[in-house]
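anyone seen this seq b4? input:
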Amino acid sequence: MENALSAIDDAVVVPSLPRKAFRVEIFCDGHDWEEVSAELHRLCDHVLEHGKECRLVCGNGWVTVTESPEQTKERFYEQLESYLAAKRSG
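predicted toks r here
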């Protein structure tokens, strides 16, 4: 157990991958490719129809839209540079 704890103490903390101001997550499943494809089209149409207010959960899938209004392009790229530098060093 002591070795496991020392490994944790020696671990380098890498920042998480930054996110942009908007993120759309879509999940769908089906019994065959045609079913998945049809569900994906339906979910995408729903997103386009409802915009950033879109929230949908159904039997074959779900959609979430997350907005981070404090995130700017400049801040994103600063965070991305920090993330990449940490990955390179570590």
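The chain has one domain: 19-89. The first strand starts at residue 22 and ends at 28. kinda curious what u guys think
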